[in-house]
Design brief:
The structure is a homodimer.
Chain A lengths: L1 H21 L7 H10 L4 H12 L8 H16 L3 E14 L3 E7 L3 E3 L1 E3 L11 E8 L2 H6 L9 E4 L12 H9 L1 H7 L4 E5 L25 E4 L1 H12 L5 E6 L2 E15 L8 E7 L9 H20 L6 E7 L7 H10 L4 E6 L7 E7 L5 H11 L5 E2 L11 H5 L3 E7 L4 H4 L12 H20 L12
Parallel strand pairs in A: 5-6, 6-7, 7-8, 11-12, 11-13, 13-16, 14-15
Antiparallel strand pairs in A: 1-10, 2-3, 2-9, 4-8, 5-9, 10-12, 14-16
Helix pairs in contact in A: 1-11, 2-14, 3-9, 9-14, 11-14
GO cellular component, one term (chains A, B): extracellular region
Main location (chains A, B): endoplasmic reticulum
Subunit structure (chains A, B): Homodimer. The monomeric form is inactive while the homodimer is active.
């Protein structure tokens, strides 16, 4: 009950902001409000998240587990009554994890908990042993001369803090995204980073790293946050530090992956398609509950509520994208195959399962009232209608970057980077009450967007 | 500041209880209060906990890491100015961890995070594969006929909840302490338990298991709590479940371990010795910050504050016991070697680093005023002086069971079993403010006990 009071208070504060931005207040549509409130009792999103994480578990892109997840999703979406359920395949390069061990050997011998980053090179099976050079930040590593790094294992730390909007991932994440490539260019024999995470558990955060063309891949791993802090304390003692590292991942060549699609057909083919997305693949360490089983649960549940309320004007197309984590292969393949269709708006749920706290949009001028009606419909469940851009998630990003309208329902990311890409991304981390608020927000948004009488054309002033 | 108000409120409520129990209120001694309050600024306990966990890390009993910890402790206690610092060795059987993997193979193939229990037998190197039989509690397993278990892997779950006093460990822990022995007797090929823990992280809780004489040891492991919940959900589907299990630990024979001792010599040899203990060894998965690096930090810091305030009447002897986790080999060896000495009171810190919330004692009638003065000195820092027995920790338990007086300073265990015996038992889990409150409580207790003019004789009405 406290939560509801808080949400109501947030809504009361939020509304005037939206209203002033839109110059006059918009009253929520009664039918939309009724659908939204009914969706607050949703069970579909939990059913999908629980089922996918339990019956499939981890589903690394391009593996047979991801293939089982596609079959599972086709069966589930068919059972729910969606139309045109199917799989669209593509091939992609597949990297798989091997053994992973590390230990400080000097001056204080002890094991370290770490995990290989996606695309990491392998060490010899017996591992390597080398001096470690410590940088408190990625910027400090970049500023260091090559002779401080050559022949050594680079250790880069950071001081990432939790934030509601997840800002910080782009900045602190650079050490993971491109750090090993730069370390390799400076002659490092391997790189370990403090996990790009905000927790304090011995559960390291994996994630992809990318080696620039022509750069020799090196072994690259993330230490759990407590292990990275331990290594920092060891460096504080001022003595030379050496460590062993054994990583035996491998690139296995090209394998099949695929997207799963389904539809709620609209009554007006000329009105265009609303494309809503999540991703079906997960990293291999956890069961992908918050990243992104819950996202698939949320969008499919919302589409189900709209379908059951009667045929919408616009077709709602569900995309459970494959292979997002390892390079957005599914989203990119989907864009190439479908960019010629009349997709008028995109939106994605891929930031956990905690509540929606903000909505932003990029819409053509003619459709700005649609955005105002969405914001009005979301305010009663504690969502701020805010200025600011919208980008879609990774899997619909190509559409957004090419002029398709976007609505972003921003999820609370305060604890997202406690769990992101770790073994700890499991079902117990999903709060059923917040999951339902997501479904209610998506149901309200879809009710407005799919039935809007306005034309939703391309955004000609796209960034 | 809020904490201080809460503590003051707790003290205000607590005092009358103690007072009524003792029939008249006791005013805290001013010198004791001054020592206690000065100890609220303690840095020694953190210094020891940080140093031991960083410079040694995990220190499994009977290994060279535990030997390094002994040398570290001798150097530290000597540097702090204690007298008669030394090591007393003994031999003990040593079990060491090997590879550990598990996976559901049917009906939903996926890996499981688990860790071997101490004394677990090994599987063949290639592992075993068998049907799993599920029991929601240890009691249900015990009630099951052998033919439901024979040839299978037994999975026993539980619903342990966090409690302030740690009650529940004895009850729920039975599945770990003796479960595998009974499962072996019923013909199980292996046993997996839900970790005896209250967290929801992929960090399984190890701990010793004991096979009764004549019972063939079987492979035995703890699943992390999220993995156990996952396996329960798999069983809810009603299909036969099979899993693989690979554990390659081994018994390595007899090895040397040892206790580290140090003293603050008292002025009156006739007044007897106050023996305060912690344990120096840790399980191998974490760095043993809360179990029991902090305990060693707390007792040594408190003894240091007493020593620096002037020579006490009674000798305070510090025991950093070895090999507690794996069978109290250090405590038992210490008792055998020193049971003839005039040890008049024992106390141990071995329940984490969170604040002391209750004090209980078992004292001879002649020394009951000592207990009342201790309770009075602790009330202002939020400690309830309560009725109820005192047992000492494991390492001084033999003294307590043989008539030596005991004072227990009970630590708040609400989050202890989130961390206990897991990889997550690391320094970051220690709250420096609560650690200092422990030191203050121990300093006050020692100030009263070591200087009490009363005779502290044996407890003739011992349980």
């Amino acid at each position: 009950m406290t939560r509801h009071l808080l949400l109501a208070a947030a809504a009361a504060i939020a509304l005037p902001v939206t209203a002033s931005a839109q110059s006059m207040p918009t009253v929520p549509d009664a039918e939309v409000s009724a659908l939204r409130d009914a969706a607050m009792q949703d069970e579909y999103a939990w059913d999908i998240t629980e089922g996918l994480t339990t019956e499939i578990g981890p589903r690394l892109a391009g593996t047979e587990a991801e293939a089982r997840a596609r079959d599972w999703a086709v069966a589930k979406l068919t059972e729910m009554g969606f139309s045109n359920v199917g799989i669209e395949t593509y091939d992609m390069p597949v990297w798989v994890r091997g053994e992973e061990h590390g230990a400080i050997t000097t001056p204080f011998p002890q094991p370290l908990t770490l995990t290989a980053l996606g695309n990491s090179a392998a060490t010899p099976p017996e591992g390597i042993e080398a001096e470690v050079v410590y940088f408190a930040s990625f910027a400090e590593m970049m500023a260091a001369p090559a002779d401080a790094i050559e022949g050594k294992i680079v250790f880069v730390s950071h001081d990432m803090q939790p934030t509601q909007d997840g800002s910080g991932y782009g900045n602190y994440g650079a050490a993971r995204f491109v750090g090993p490539s730069f370390a390799s260019q400076k002659g490092a024999v391997a790189m370990v980073i403090k996990s790009i995470g905000t927790d304090n558990h011995r559960t390291p955060h994996t994630g992809g790293t990318n080696f620039a063309q022509g750069v020799e891949p090196i072994p690259a791993a993330a230490l759990s946050v407590p292990d990275a802090e331990q290594l920092e304390r060891v460096f504080e003692r001022g003595q030379p530090v050496r460590m062993t590292l054994t990583l035996t991942p491998r690139q296995t060549g090209m394998h099949e992956s695929g997207n799963v699609v389904a539809e709620v057909p609209g009554s007006d083919p000329e009105a265009g398609i609303v494309l809503i997305a999540c991703h079906l693949d997960s990293w291999d360490l956890g069961t992908g509950a918050i990243d992104d089983g819950a996202g698939c649960g949320i969008i499919a549940a919302a589409a189900k509520h709209i379908m059951d309320a009667g045929q919408p004007r616009r077709t709602i197309r569900i995309l459970f994208a494959g292979a997002e984590e390892v390079g957005v292969f599914g989203g990119d393949a989907y864009y190439e195959a479908h960019k010629g269709e009349k997709i008028v708006l995109v939106s994605e749920s891929d930031f956990g399962a905690d509540r929606v706290w903000k909505v932003t949009s990029v819409l053509p001028e003619s459709a700005e009232p649609v955005g105002a009606r969405v914001a009005a419909a979301l305010a009663p469940i504690g969502v701020v209608g805010a200025q600011g851009s919208a980008h879609g998630g990774a899997d619909v990003g190509m559409f957004a970057r090419n002029g398709v309208a976007v609505i972003d329902l921003h999820q609370d990311g305060t604890r997202y980077f406690d769990l992101h890409h770790t073994p700890d991304d499991t079902l117990d981390k999903v709060d059923p009450e917040q999951l339902r608020q997501n479904v209610a927000a998506w149901t309200a948004m879809l009710a407005v967007v799919a039935n809007a009488p306005e034309e939703i054309g391309p955004v000609t002033h796209a960034e």
